[in-house]
Amino acid sequence: MSRIRATALEDLLAEAWTGPAWHGPALREVVHSLAPEQAIVRLRDASHSPWALILHAAYWKHRVRCRIANERGSRFARKPSNFPAPPREPDVTRWREDLAGLDTHAEALLALAATLRDRDLDRPAGRYTVEASLRGIALHDLYHAGQIRMLQRMIERKQL
Prior knowledge:
By secondary structure, this protein is an all-alpha fold.
């Protein structure tokens, strides 16, 4: 059974999540380089803090995996789901828990992708195909990696 397309998508997911990527740091590298004190900062013109974006990324990894695995009753642990509220003050324990949660959701999605065959990629996963969903979540990771990295640099330069 062919895995040419599936392997390419699996590689794309892994590159966006852990790298190495030609464009710069992958999402995991970016989020694990943040301190909780940086992660809670919400810049004047930014809609969300880095921490909120990390929770958002975890949610969408969970949603995509559930759609592909057809797990309709699976719920995300935090509320509201899409953009759970991060703490208002730095909390090292919660920070580590939320990073571990993102890692867990990412690894679960990668593990599922490793089981897929090319014939699986054309089946529906919600409104999109499995292939479009996997490609979309990889692009989502890259988008937010860049966004979080830019916020981190602004925070480090005290451009608040």
